[in-house]
Amino acid sequence: MADTATANPQSPVPLDTIPISPSDGTTPNGTGSSDSTSADTGAIKTVFHDPDNFNVKHPLMNQWTLWFTKPPSGKGDNWNDLLKEVISFDSVEEFWGIYNNITPTSELALKSDYHLFKKGVRPEWEDAQNKHGGKWAFQFKEKKMVNIDGLWLHVMLAAIGETLEDEDDGEVMGVVVNVRKGFYRIGLWTRTTGRPVPGGGDGNNAGGKGRSLDQGKEILLKIGKRFKDALGLKDNEGVEFAGHTESAHSGSTRAKAKFAV
């Protein structure tokens, strides 16, 4: 694995040597195992049994994609040129392989972002699955006092572990961490702002289909509270929710809060 301690903070560590679980009894580097026990009677080996020669992965409920926003050069960079799709994964083993090979958030350059979104969803307001949604967020202003690496990891695990919402909610699109001069900010993007999406959603109650406004608000507030718990915030520290449309109209990611918990 790459040595993250010596990584260039300007960009993620190259990910071309990430160990991904083999599906055919081979080792992660594509060669046959020299350990005769790896092929005996087709025994199941998870990463917890053998970190090098495992042959079974622990699947996630959804496939996820990691994105990275590099700092602007100051020359009128286009957002699409700064936003880079890094890699997609759908298992616990792949997540840890990726996480252990990228630059820690605390070592990223200012104006960098990591985005972890469900596959097929771009971390942009304009994306069809985001345009009717919003974001829960909290700013950590005492940067030197914050373990941002631990907080971001905890939020990512909560996202891919599907603990931020109930199974039929269909709201969580992704999570993001922003590195800025005066603060770190962690956000959680949702599909709706509590109102049903025009045209309905894609399955169950995704998109707010079949929900009343009160039910939509209740679901968002529940997600906000779980997000707050994932961040380990105190009772007097609140997370705020704002819609993407309001943020776009205000010209800032810090639009007036619609909800707070």
UniProtKB/TrEMBL annotation:
Which GO MF terms are attached to this record?
RNA 7-methylguanosine cap binding; translation initiation factor activity
One family name in Pfam for this protein: IF4E
Compositional bias (Polar residues) spans?
1-10
Keywords noted in UniProt? Initiation factor, Protein biosynthesis, RNA-binding, Translation regulation
| GO BP of this protein | regulation of translation
* Cited InterPro entries: TIF_eIF4e-like, TIF_eIF_4E, TIF_eIF_4E_CS
Region annotation (Disordered) maps to 1-41
List the biased-composition ranges (Low complexity).
30-41
Q: Name one GO cellular component term.
A: eukaryotic translation initiation factor 4F complex
Highest taxon of the lineage? Eukaryota
Q: How does it assemble?
A: eIF4F is a multi-subunit complex, the composition of which varies with external and internal environmental conditions. It is composed of at least eIF4A, eIF4E and eIF4G. eIF4E is also known to interact with other partners.
The UniProt similarity line reads: Belongs to the eukaryotic initiation factor 4E family.
Role: Recognizes and binds the 7-methylguanosine-containing mRNA cap during an early step in the initiation of protein synthesis and facilitates ribosome binding by inducing the unwinding of the mRNAs secondary structures.
Protein name according to UniProt: Eukaryotic translation initiation factor 4E
Record the organism: Pseudovirgaria hyperparasitica
Q: What is the lineage of its organism?
A: Eukaryota, Fungi, Dikarya, Ascomycota, Pezizomycotina
